[in-house]
Specification:
The complex is a heterodimer of chains A (355) and B (284). Chain A has 355 residues and is of the alpha+beta class. Chain A is built from 13 helices and twelve strands. Chain A has one domain. Chain B is of the alpha/beta class. Chain B is globular. At the A-B interface, strand 4, strand 5, helix 3, helix 4 and strand 7 of A face strand 4 and strand 13 of B.
């Protein structure tokens, strides 16, 4: 454990920027919203800013990405294929613990199943992650219910915790330790472990009652989702409120469905791209011959919640697919973000119990 | 996961398609053609081993990629695919000529059981182009005829001109005790065989249920009626095997387009027993 003065904390990002592209939360002046952006000026990064509107997944899993390009000459029958994805060392400075857990979900899914996703791995291998403990929860947060905050426990290179006019710096990997050494930071004595856990406890106590209240219910709903006991009426009710905009998917740190397309350029070259997709879109499962096994919107809508909360899906992530960042609740025009869905299922359960 | 171990893909053809030459094109039924293929790279050709019931991803250059089942037997059979012109990409394939090239990734998926079903009676029930994925298993089983009991093919199509692989069926009839029952939906002139749906053939063939495995593949409506009939006769849910079809993009269990409930057809499937299909948590 080390200490760095608040006013000097940007120096960590500065050091990283020598070898990495640095991404961090930056508050946009015009809108006052936080965005996770690539920045050349580490001083721009605001560690006290609320969680960025978009999750960090685009850093390792871009929204649209070229995989390879090819050219097929019909006359000579020659196929010329080039790998085309760009990989550079990237660092995220000031990642919140929920977003880190989201990335770990992606890791386990993209790298830990039968096949390894080469493209994702290429990006991920070169990443450096600096997490930032949330000493204040934000309005929509419920990471306390999904075991993903307010402080990262592992899987970071460096973790920062704001304590008074210093940041407590913890290295979580060899790479992290090296960087801390290079900066020559002041060592923190053991009393800081206690100070840190006091700060976390204080933060937990500040979460909205609705968030902490939901804690037991999330596990209860996971159980109902897994065993298939949620009635179709509830799904229909939820489905009827869905605008099929896909926003919840795109802002979710652990959603990773994608589509693959070949795009023809005017030069005669074709590019294979992959792009984010959403299971709420009607065309998602549309098969040749116009057969669509998933038709009504509730049929598609419950799929996403199933993915976030059912036990069979959790086995892929080794945790619930939801990390409690609250972004889906924030962006959903139909008011069916995950916390509300939990509430609907909860209501159905309690009503049945009362009868 | 800050420090990664270097993972390597076992399957060389997982993300990057390899070029294969269309050696021969054969017209099958209306809108369906068979493409005989060989890899440009002979090393890949040598290493390319399939199991019956698996599938590949086929790139039609300039159009995109589609998933397609593999009809050849894993033993001594020409590498080929049979494809119906059903959309943009398969339409692009149908425009290609002999000598043109396509890209191949795969093979993917679990495949049909083979060793496990030795010694049993085998029933194949196919509807229309549902015979394409079953062909691989049929040929493989016939190549090892002595290891199996009764082998019965029940095949239904809309009309005589919708019957796939008729020339193959003729060859299969030469195998000792290969029983074939073919039906068409409605009577047409010149047809003197069975008329009606394929589930009616089950009784006709007096299919066994003890020590028996049934492979069923066809459109959902046929699938359900056939399964109902087989179960009524006493066949166990574990002994009914089918291969499922879904819109697929990556083939390696990442894009999630082929999810049915808790399963991904590309890596967990495409072959499932009826008992598994029933518990997937979603309609097939």
């Amino acid at each position: 454990m080390y200490l760095i003065k608040k006013s000097d904390v940007y120096k960590i990002a500065e050091e990283l920027s020598k070898t990495h592209q640095v991404f961090g939360p930056v508050v946009e002046k015009e809108s006052g919203q936080t965005f996770l952006v690539k920045t050349d000026d580490p001083k721009e990064i605001d560690l006290t800013a609320p969680i960025p509107v978009q999750p960090p997944k685009s850093v390792v899993f871009p929204q649209i990405e070229k995989i390879f390009s090819y050219r097929y000459d019909k006359n000579t029958k020659i196929v010329d294929m080039q790998q085309e994805f760009k990989v550079e060392p990237k660092a995220i400075f000031g990642l919140r613990s929920c977003d880190l857990e989201g990335m770990i979900c992606l890791d386990r899914f993209m790298l830990g199943q039968e096949f390894v996703d080469d493209v994702y791995l290429a990006h991920r291998k070169q990443m450096f992650i600096v997490t930032n403990t949330c000493i204040e929860p934000f309005e929509q947060c419920f990471c306390v219910c999904t075991d993903s905050g307010p402080c990262a426990k592992e899987n970071f290179d460096i973790n920062l915790t704001e304590l008074g006019d210093h940041y407590l710096v913890e290295a979580g990997s060899g790479k992290g330790e090296e960087l801390v050494q290079a900066l020559g930071l002041e060592k923190a004595d053991t009393s800081f472990t206690e100070k840190k856990s006091a700060a976390i406890d204080k933060s937990i106590s500040k979460f909205e009652t609705i968030a902490t209240d939901n804690k037991a219910w999330i596990s209860r709903v996971m159980n109902r989702m897994t065993t298939g006991f949620t009635s179709s009426d509830v799904w229909e009710y939820i489905g009827n409120q869905c605008f099929e905009c896909g926003a919840c998917t795109f802002v979710c740190p652990s959603c990773s469905c994608f589509n693959i397309e070949d795009v023809n350029r005017t030069s005669g070259e074709s590019v294979r791209i992959r792009e984010w997709d959403s299971c709420s879109f009607e065309g998602y499962t549309l098969m040749a011959g116009d057969h669509n096994p998933r038709k009504p919107v509730e049929d598609r809508r419950n799929k996403r919640f199933f993915c976030k909360l059912s036990y069979s899906q959790s086995k892929k992530y080794l945790r619930p697919g939801c990390v409690g960042c609250g972004r889906c609740a924030w962006v959903c025009p139909g008011d069916i973000g995950l916390p509300n869905v939990v509430t609907y299922i909860r209501r159905e359960t309690t009503e049945k119990v009362e009868q | 996961m800050s420090e990664h171990k270097d993972h390597t893909c076992v399957n060389k053809l997982a993300t990057i398609p390899h070029a294969a030459v269309i050696d021969e094109i054969k017209d099958e039924i209306e809108d369906v053609r068979t493409y005989y293929l060989s890899f440009e790279d002979k090393e890949i050709e040598k290493d390319f081993k399939i199991k019956s019931g698996q599938f590949i991803m086929c790139t039609v250059y300039g159009y995109g990629e589609f998933a397609v089942s593999l009809p050849p037997s894993p033993e001594n059979d020409r590498f080929h695919i049979s494809v119906r012109n059903a959309g943009k990409v398969t339409g692009g394939l149908h425009d290609l000529k002999e000598g043109d090239k396509v890209g191949i990734r795969g093979p993917f998926g679990n495949g049909f059981p083979f060793e496990e079903i030795k010694g049993k009676n085998i029933i194949y029930v196919a509807g229309g182009i549902g015979l394409i994925p079953l062909r691989s298993s049929i040929v493989h089983v016939l190549q090892n005829r002595e290891d199996f009991g009764r082998i019965i093919l029940l095949y239904g199509a809309r009309s005589p001109k919708d019957l796939m692989y008729e020339y193959n069926i003729e060859e299969w009839k030469n195998f000792d005790g290969f029983e074939t029952y073919i039906t068409i939906d409605q009577h047409v002139d010149g047809w003197d065989g069975e008329v009606g749906y394929v589930n009616q053939l089950i009784e006709k063939a007096n299919v066994p249920v003890e020590d028996t495995v049934a492979f069923v593949c066809g459109p959902p409506i046929m699938f359900n009626s056939v399964i109902g009939e087989l179960i009524e006769r006493g066949l166990k849910e574990d002994d009914i095997i089918s291969t499922l079809e879904r819109h697929m993009k990556c083939g390696i269990g990442k894009c999630q387009h082929c999810a049915i409930g808790r399963t991904l057809v590309c890596t967990d499937g495409p072959v499932y027993t009826y008992r598994q299909i029933k518990t997937l948590g979603e309609d097939i």
